[in-house]
Amino acid sequence: MDSLLHNNDNDDNHLDHVLHDFLALSDLPSLSLSLSLSLDRLVHSSASFSEADHLVDRAFTMGSILLEVAKHSYRNRASVHNSLTWPLPPDLSIKVFSLVDTSSLCHAAATCKLFRNWAKDPFCYSHIDLRTPVPKVNDALVATIIHRAGKTLRSLMLGVVPDATTSSGSCQPLSDTRRNCYSCGYKRSQKDSCHLTRCCLNPLNADGGALGALLRKLHLYNIGQMDSSSLVETLSVCPSLLDLEIVGLDVELGCILSSVSANCHLIERLAFAASTTGRNEILNIQTCSHLVAGCPHLTALSLRGIRIHDYKVRILVKGFQKLKYLDFSRSVSITGSFLRNLGNSNGGNFLEFLNLRDCMHLKEMEVAKLLTAIIAGNFKSLVHLDISNREGLGLRTDRQHTCYISSIMPVKEVLDTRPWMRLMVDYPSDRSNRDP
Q: Quick check: pTM over 0.70?
């Protein structure tokens, strides 16, 4: 036994000397050229093609091993240095790490073992933001980080947004997927896709929905493969959800709203923007009524680019007694008649934000009545109103009659009455100036 240990010590010492001498070669001028010529001589002197190939393969292997060993040693030295100079105790360091966005957390975890250990704490992943400007995140990475968070998970944002850097708490997009995946404990193979699929939310459904049970915020953007059934399954295990935002998903709005009204009774904010290739289906009265009954705490409702008629909008607005934020921009059916006598009701008088921008069939007369009601003292809480329309306002049911410069809308009177109000009334001066 002693002889074996002695032999191992001798081998280690010999390897140390060999590595020391090999690293000393880095001081030589034109080392790259010298090594290249030396390897070429060895290859040419080989007895066979297979032996020459074997030499080249061994060179690749040794180079890769040496690179990984150097990275490992660098991280160890950085850990020692940081442990001696880092001024914060571990519990406070974890608190600081929990305040940064997911991208920055992944970059911090890649710097050294000390930071990596702190970045593994579930508390750091309570709020996961994996939005990117281009597809760079896949299901496996999402699953890794969700399981890292465990039951501390409260917020999850996924998908592709044009500019992820503008979001609150985000310093930069995930610019290097391979690096970020590795730093989060997941190495992506060449076969892994960089796209999210309909299964990306499956970790929330596992173990009877244990990880989704305490989720408060779910934002999904432009996940092309997501379908209605997968999203409904996830919503069914998220009873604590307060904030749901769905943008650019090709899912059935009626199906999603039915699931929300049945499972997410605490929800306070609901936002949906139709996909450009979406179904744009018409919401029925039953869906609207169930949503009102099932979500009594809703304060913000945004349904952009959908087909919904005024009498159904009125059911929603009057039904939600706490509604403050309302956005039906780009609607293809709203005329504005739902606003009549709404400003003095429980559902409409609490509105602070109203967005009817680019509603295709919005009528000049209905807008004028709205502004007159504001002057009369209705909609007392309203501080933001957007009634701009690049298509102009409709004069009649026939869309061939369009108004670009209105003489009956008391815009100036509204601003005189409420100078603090932000009123947006942007219309093209004539048909030739409309956007294509």
A: yes
